[in-house]
Design brief:
The structure holds two protein chains of two kinds. Chain A is α/β, with parallel strands linked by helices. Chain A has 14 helices and seven strands. Chain A is 51% helix and 11% strand. In chain A, strand 4 (239-242), helix 10 and strand 5 (261-263) form a beta-alpha-beta unit. The longest helix of chain A has 26 residues, at 166-191. Chain A is globular and about 65 Å long. Chain B has helices at 6-14, 17-29, 34-54, 60-77, 104-115, 129-139, 156-166, 184-189, 199-209, and strands spanning 90-97, 118-127, 143-147, 174-178, 194-195.
C-alpha cells in the first residue's frame, strides 16, 4: 500500500514545548547542514550568494526536504557569529578581535544590527514565502551568549580574561546581552509568525564539565540568557535551549531561568534516559540519539536502535521529540539518517494501529 | 629572610603568575637548586590542580591560569639548568589529525603537559601522517599524541599509526589518543598505547608510559 503523504502540523511539535505528549512522535534536529541535504537529494543545495527567485527556489528545496522527511517544523537561525566583523575564533586556532579594553571600545558594536538585518532579511523573507502549509520554522537568532564571547575573544583568552581583566569580562557579557536583545527583538517584531517556537544554542559544556566555572556561568552568562528567554516569552513564544556537554552542574539554574525545553545529549556523558528521569517532569526534551551511533552503524543497527529506544523514550517522557543528540553535519551517513527517519515512521505507524 | 617555597606552590595552584615569578626569583637569589624548585614545588602544584580538575573541583580556566604561572616560573629557571640536569621529564608531539580543525581540547592537554614538565611540540591542527612521522623521526619524541573531534576524522589516527609502522618507528614511540568521539575500545582497536578523556588523565598516562611514578 502506498504510504500516505505526510502533512506537517507545527502544533504537534509545539506540544513538546508545553511538556505534553504530542499526538504522534515528532522529529527534531538542531540543524541539518546544506551539504548533507545536497548529498541526500543528489543535487546542489547552497544558498551562498543567492537572491530573489534563486533564493526562493533554494528554500523551496530545503523546506521540502524537511517536509518529505516528516518534520512538523524546520530549523532556521540567523547566525549572529557569522556576521561579526573579524569573527572566527570560536573554531579555535586564532585569537578573536577583542583582547583588551581598547579592542572592546573600538569594536563596531553599533554596526552589527544593520549588518545582521542586511544579511538575514532576504533569507527570512524567502523562507516565509516558501514555507509549506502546516509547517513553521524554529530557531531565531543563531549562536548563544557564551559562543559569541568565544568568537569575539577566543576560548583560552576568555578563560584567562575573567582573572586578568574581570571588569572587561563582565562588560563583554553585558554588551553581548544588549546586542542580543536588539537582534532578537528585531527578529520577533518582524518574523514572529514564521517561528513556532524559539531556540538559542549555547554550548556551555564538554564531555566532563562546564566550559567555565559554574559560578562564572551563573554570574555572567545565565542572566543574559534570561534576557533572551524573557523577550521570547513576551512575544508569546516558547523557548528551547540547545546546549551541548556535561552541564548537569548548572541545570537547576538553567531551569530556573524559565526554559521550556532542552536539546542535546551525548552517550559518553549520560544516557538519554537520565535526562528524562531528571528533567522531564519540568521541561520537554528533544534528541536521544548520539550522533556517533547514527554515523558509524549500518542501516539495520540504527533502525533497530531507534525503533526500540525511540519507543522507550516516547513512553517514558511527556514532551519528547526524537532526533540526533546534536545535529546532522555534512559528514553524516545518509543510510544512518534514513534509518532514523524510517524507524520514527514505524513507531508512528504502530501507535496508529494500536 | 629565607624564601618560603610553599608560596610558589600556592601561587601556581592559584594561577598567580606575578607571585610565582617573584618567589622563584627569591629562591634563585638564595641559591636554591632549580631542580628542587621545579620538582618539589612547581610540578607538585600542577599535579594538584590536575587532580582537582579531574575530581571536578577545578575547571579549564583554573588549569590555564596555573599553567601560565608555571610557565612564567619555568622560563626563569630554564637558563640555569645545565649539564645532565634535564628540565623536562619527556618529549612529546601533539596534534589534531588531518581533516580536523578543532584545537581547544588539544591545546589544553598540551598546556597541562608543559605545566607538568614535558617538552611539547604542538603541531597544530589538520596534521598529516607524514608530518607526525617526520616529527617522530627528527625530534626523537617519546610520545605522539593525537586528537580528533569528529567521528569521521578519528579514523585517521589509525592511518598515522600505520604510517609509523611503515616507517619502522612504531617501536620507538608511544601513541596516545583523545577527543570527543574517541574511547578506550577504539584506541585499542587501532593499536594506540593509551586513551584518556581529560587533560590531567593524559599527563598521568604519559608518565606511566614513560615509567615515571
Amino acid at each position: 500500500m502506498k504510504e500516505q503523504e505526510f502533512q506537517p502540523d507545527y502544533n504537534n511539535i509545539l506540544k513538546v514545548l508545553y511538556n505534553q505528549r504530542p499526538d504522534y512522535l515528532p522529529l527534531y534536529e538542531h540543524n541539518i547542514d546544506e551539504p548533507f541535504i545536497a548529498k541526500f537529494l543528489g543535487q546542489d543545495v547552497d544558498s551562498t550568494g543567492k537572491t530573489g527567485k534563486d533564493l526562493d527556489e533554494h528554500y523551496r528545496i530545503v523546506c521540502n526536504f524537511w517536509k518529505d522527511n516528516t518534520y512538523d517544523a524546520m530549523s532556521y537561525e540567523a547566525k549572529i557569529c557569522e556576521i561579526y566583523p573579524d569573527h572566527g575564533a570560536i573554531l579555535g586556532g586564532r585569537l578573536g578581535p577583542i583582547q583588551t579594553r581598547e579592542d572592546f571600545n573600538a569594536y563596531p558594536w553599533d554596526d552589527i544590527p544593520r549588518i545582521f538585518k542586511e544579511a538575514y532579511k532576504p533569507h527570512l523573507d524567502s523562507l516565509r514565502k516558501m514555507m509549506p502549509a502546516g509547517m513553521k520554522a524554529y530557531g531565531g537568532c543563531g549562536y548563544g551568549i557564551f559562543e559569541s564571547a568565544e568568537d569575539l575573544v577566543g576560548y583560552e583568552s576568555l578563560c584567562m580574561m575573567q582573572y586578568l581583566d574581570p571588569d572587561l569580562f563582565r562588560d563583554l557579557f553585558l554588551k553581548i546581552g544588549d546586542l542580543y536583545e536588539v537582534l532578537w527583538r528585531w527578529v520577533l517584531d518582524n518574523y514572529a509568525d514564521l517561528f513556532v517556537f524559539c531556540r538559542m544554542g549555547d554550548d556551555l559544556g564538554y564531555r566532563t564539565s562546564t566550559m567555565l566555572e559554574p559560578d562564572t556561568i551563573r554570574q555572567h552568562i545565565l542572566p543574559q540568557h534570561k534576557r533572551v528567554i524573557d523577550i521570547v516569552h513576551s512575544y508569546g513564544k516558547k523557548f528551547l535551549l540547545h546546549s551541548c556537554g556535561n552541564i548537569f552542574g548548572i541545570m537547576d539554574d538553567i531551569l530556573a531561568n524559565g526554559i521550556d525545553a532542552k536539546h542535546s545529549n551525548e552517550d559518553q556523558i549520560a544516557p538519554f534516559t537520565e535526562w528524562i528521569e531528571k528533567y522531564n517532569d519540568r521541561i520537554g526534551l528533544f534528541g536521544g540519539f548520539d550522533m556517533n551511533e547514527i554515523i558509524l552503524n549500518p542501516y539495520d543497527v540504527v533502525y533497530e536502535k531507534v525503533l526500540r529506544e525511540g519507543t522507550q523514550f516516547r513512553n517514558m517522557a511527556k514532551g519528547y521529540g526524537l532526533g540526533s543528540g546534536n545535529s546532522i553535519p555534512d559528514y553524516m551517513a545518509v543510510e544512518g539518517y534514513t534509518a532514523m527517519i524510517d524507524a520514527v515512521k514505524e513507531i508512528r505507524r504502530r501507535e496508529k494501529n494500536q | 629572610m629565607e624564601t618560603n617555597l610553599n608560596q610558589l606552590y600556592d601561587a601556581i595552584l592559584a594561577g598567580k603568575l606575578e607571585d610565582a615569578v617573584s618567589v622563584t626569583n627569591q629562591a634563585i637569589a638564595e641559591s636554591v637548586a632549580p631542580q628542587t624548585i621545579i620538582n618539589d614545588y612547581m610540578v607538585k602544584a600542577m599535579e594538584e590542580i590536575g587532580a582537582r580538575f579531574e575530581a571536578g573541583k577545578a575547571y579549564v580556566p583554573n588549569l590555564l591560569m596555573s599553567a601560565r604561572a608555571m610557565k612564567g616560573a619555568l622560563d626563569i629557571l630554564k637558563p640555569l639548568i645545565g649539564g645532565d640536569n634535564k628540565v623536562t621529564i619527556g618529549k612529546l608531539c601533539i596534534g589534531t589529525v588531518f581533516g580536523d580543525l578543532h584545537d581547544i581540547g588539544k591545546n589544553l592537554v598540551a598546556s597541562m603537559f608543559e605545566g607538568c614538565g614535558f617538552e611539547v611540540i604542538n603541531l597544530g591542527v589538520n596534521v598529516t601522517a607524514d608530518k607526525f612521522v617526520e616529527t617522530v623521526k627528527n625530534e626523537k619524541v617519546d610520545i605522539l599524541c593525537m586528537s580528533a573531534l569528529l567521528t569521521t576524522t578519528m579514523n585517521y589516527m589509525k592511518t598515522v599509526i600505520d604510517a609509523l609502522k611503515e616507517a619502522g618507528l612504531r617501536d620507538q614511540v608511544k601513541v596516545m589518543v583523545g577527543g570527543a568521539p574517541v574511547n578506550e575500545k577504539f584506541a585499542m582497536e587501532i593499536g594506540a598505547d593509551a586513551y584518556t578523556d581529560n587533560a590531567n588523565a593524559a599527563v598521568v598516562a604519559a608518565k606511566k608510559l614513560m615509567g615515571i611514578n
